[in-house]
Amino acid sequence: MAKIEIVLGDITKSQVDAIVNAANTSLLGGGGVDGAIHRAAGPALLAACRPLNGCATGEAKLTPGFRLPAKYVVHTPGPIWRGGQHHERTLLANSYRNSLTLAAAHGCQTVAFPSISTGVYHFPLELAAEIALRTLQETAATTAKSVQLIQIVCFDDQTKKAYEIALAALSA
Ligand code: AR6
User: Fold this and answer.
1) Counting beta carbons within 10 angstroms of the beta carbon of residue 164, is it exposed (0 to 12), middle (13 to 18) or buried (19 or more)?
2) Minimal CB count within 10 Å: which of 1, 7, 117, 133?
3) Which parts of the chain have pLDDT scores under 50?
4) pLDDT for 153
């Protein structure tokens, strides 16, 4: 069973087999964690993303990590929060499930995730943390059994606290 760890930091520095990118459906880069990953990986990452022809919300596509310490980047567009009645919860769960399953299919044993959709996409943080951890735990127990370590890399203390609380609730 995979261990789930909540850490504070910059995901572009993560020494794991795969990092997950909170992308948009174009897969052609953006701000936030997406911008940071593209800057750190170098221009070859954009060149690898172009022929993928984008990605639907909740789906996932994989590229090499290029200059990153991680071997792979799994790109997933999370949902934009539009009030909660537009399948946002299901789509966010899909992003986590599909990303972890794709990384596992490429032999990844260690995978790092950012807090998908809780930045400019405005998904409520506490709800996102609960969905993320429940989905990752379920997926690790079923379709991604080879994964040993899942890290949630939080960029600020408030995000870290929300995931710690959600993890404690899940383990209780
Ligand atoms: N390492 C870890 N987490 C980070 C980093 C980093 N280097 N930089 C930011 N975060 P966001 P979204 C955190 O807005 O809400 C992009 O333009 C950030 O503080 O990056 O899914 C895409 O192209 C927040 O907690 O992603 C899309 O258009 C979390 O990552 C759109 O933003 C997610 O914030 C996706 O929006």
Assistant:
1) middle
2) 1
3) none
4) 99
Q: Which of 133, 125, 135, 36 is nearest to 81 (CA)?
A: 125
Q: Which amino acid would we find at residue 123? A: F
157 is catalytic: no
HSE-CB for 88 with a 13 A CA cutoff: 18
CA–CA dist 88, 65 (Å, integer):
28
Cα gap 164→55, rounded to integer Å? 30
**Contact (CB, 8 A) for 36 and 50:** no
Among 12, 57, 152, 155, residue to substitute to test ligand 1 (most atoms within 8 Å of Cβ): 155
Asked if residue 22 lies in contact with residue 114, where contact means CB atoms within 8 angstroms, the answer is yes
DSSP per residue over 23-53, as a string? E-TT-S--SHHHHHHHHHH-THHHHHHGGG-
- What backbone torsions phi and psi does residue 94 show, to the nearest 5 degrees? -60, -40
